[in-house]
Design brief:
The chain is 28% helix and 18% strand. By secondary structure, it is an alpha+beta fold.
Length: 109
Protein backbone atom coordinates (compact mmCIF):
# COMPACT_ATOMS: atom_id res chain seq x y z
CA UNK A 1 0.00 0.00 0.00
CA UNK A 2 1.51 3.33 -0.98
CA UNK A 3 1.90 6.22 1.48
CA UNK A 4 -1.06 8.25 0.17
CA UNK A 5 -3.47 5.32 0.42
CA UNK A 6 -2.12 4.38 3.86
CA UNK A 7 -2.63 7.94 5.11
CA UNK A 8 -6.18 8.10 3.77
CA UNK A 9 -6.99 4.72 5.29
CA UNK A 10 -5.63 5.84 8.67
CA UNK A 11 -7.57 9.12 8.58
CA UNK A 12 -10.90 7.42 7.92
CA UNK A 13 -10.46 4.09 9.69
CA UNK A 14 -8.13 5.02 12.51
CA UNK A 15 -4.79 3.69 13.61
CA UNK A 16 -6.32 0.79 15.50
CA UNK A 17 -7.61 -1.02 12.39
CA UNK A 18 -5.15 -3.73 11.38
CA UNK A 19 -4.76 -5.50 8.03
CA UNK A 20 -6.54 -8.66 9.19
CA UNK A 21 -9.42 -6.83 10.94
CA UNK A 22 -12.83 -7.13 9.32
CA UNK A 23 -15.02 -4.28 8.13
CA UNK A 24 -18.73 -4.35 7.23
CA UNK A 25 -20.12 -2.35 4.30
CA UNK A 26 -23.30 -0.41 5.01
CA UNK A 27 -24.26 -0.49 1.31
CA UNK A 28 -23.97 -4.18 0.40
CA UNK A 29 -24.03 -5.57 3.97
CA UNK A 30 -21.02 -7.81 3.30
CA UNK A 31 -17.79 -8.01 5.26
CA UNK A 32 -14.21 -7.86 4.11
CA UNK A 33 -10.75 -7.63 5.58
CA UNK A 34 -9.60 -4.07 6.07
CA UNK A 35 -6.95 -3.87 3.37
CA UNK A 36 -9.01 -5.60 0.68
CA UNK A 37 -10.57 -2.34 -0.50
CA UNK A 38 -10.57 -1.15 -4.11
CA UNK A 39 -8.72 2.03 -5.07
CA UNK A 40 -10.04 4.55 -7.56
CA UNK A 41 -7.79 7.35 -8.75
CA UNK A 42 -9.46 10.41 -10.23
CA UNK A 43 -7.75 13.72 -11.01
CA UNK A 44 -4.95 13.08 -8.54
CA UNK A 45 -7.29 12.01 -5.74
CA UNK A 46 -7.52 8.50 -4.35
CA UNK A 47 -10.83 6.98 -3.28
CA UNK A 48 -11.10 3.83 -1.19
CA UNK A 49 -14.09 1.64 -2.05
CA UNK A 50 -15.77 -1.55 -0.89
CA UNK A 51 -13.90 -4.47 -2.53
CA UNK A 52 -17.03 -6.03 -4.01
CA UNK A 53 -17.27 -4.92 -7.64
CA UNK A 54 -21.08 -4.80 -7.59
CA UNK A 55 -21.06 -2.38 -4.64
CA UNK A 56 -20.60 1.40 -4.72
CA UNK A 57 -19.74 1.61 -1.01
CA UNK A 58 -17.15 4.18 -0.04
CA UNK A 59 -14.79 2.92 2.67
CA UNK A 60 -14.74 6.14 4.75
CA UNK A 61 -18.50 6.66 4.61
CA UNK A 62 -19.94 3.16 4.44
CA UNK A 63 -17.62 0.85 6.37
CA UNK A 64 -17.92 -0.10 10.02
CA UNK A 65 -15.49 -2.17 12.08
CA UNK A 66 -16.88 -5.71 12.33
CA UNK A 67 -16.25 -5.80 16.07
CA UNK A 68 -18.61 -2.82 16.49
CA UNK A 69 -21.28 -4.62 14.48
CA UNK A 70 -20.98 -7.70 16.71
CA UNK A 71 -21.36 -5.50 19.80
CA UNK A 72 -24.43 -3.79 18.38
CA UNK A 73 -25.95 -6.95 16.84
CA UNK A 74 -25.01 -9.88 19.10
CA UNK A 75 -26.42 -12.43 16.65
CA UNK A 76 -23.67 -11.53 14.16
CA UNK A 77 -20.89 -14.15 14.28
CA UNK A 78 -17.57 -13.25 15.84
CA UNK A 79 -15.82 -14.24 12.59
CA UNK A 80 -17.69 -13.28 9.42
CA UNK A 81 -17.78 -15.27 6.21
CA UNK A 82 -16.42 -13.34 3.26
CA UNK A 83 -19.13 -12.49 0.73
CA UNK A 84 -22.05 -13.37 3.01
CA UNK A 85 -24.73 -10.72 3.51
CA UNK A 86 -25.38 -9.78 7.14
CA UNK A 87 -28.62 -7.87 7.68
CA UNK A 88 -28.64 -5.96 10.96
CA UNK A 89 -32.34 -5.15 10.73
CA UNK A 90 -33.49 -8.73 11.03
CA UNK A 91 -32.56 -11.05 13.87
CA UNK A 92 -32.23 -14.67 12.61
CA UNK A 93 -34.97 -15.87 14.96
CA UNK A 94 -37.34 -13.20 13.63
CA UNK A 95 -36.52 -14.31 10.09
CA UNK A 96 -37.49 -17.89 10.94
CA UNK A 97 -40.72 -16.72 12.56
CA UNK A 98 -41.62 -14.77 9.42
CA UNK A 99 -41.01 -17.85 7.24
CA UNK A 100 -43.23 -20.05 9.40
CA UNK A 101 -46.76 -20.23 7.95
CA UNK A 102 -49.43 -19.01 10.30
CA UNK A 103 -52.32 -21.27 11.15
CA UNK A 104 -55.73 -19.77 11.65
CA UNK A 105 -57.18 -20.49 15.01
CA UNK A 106 -60.69 -21.88 15.28
CA UNK A 107 -62.64 -21.90 18.49
CA UNK A 108 -63.68 -25.34 19.63
CA UNK A 109 -67.15 -25.54 21.23
Amino acid sequence: MNKTVAQQFEIFCGKDIKEDDWLWCNRCHRSYQAFEFRKLKDQGRVFLLCPYKDCTGDLPLDSRPWINMVEQYPWFPENPIKGRIYEPELHPEEEEIEKTPRLESHAID
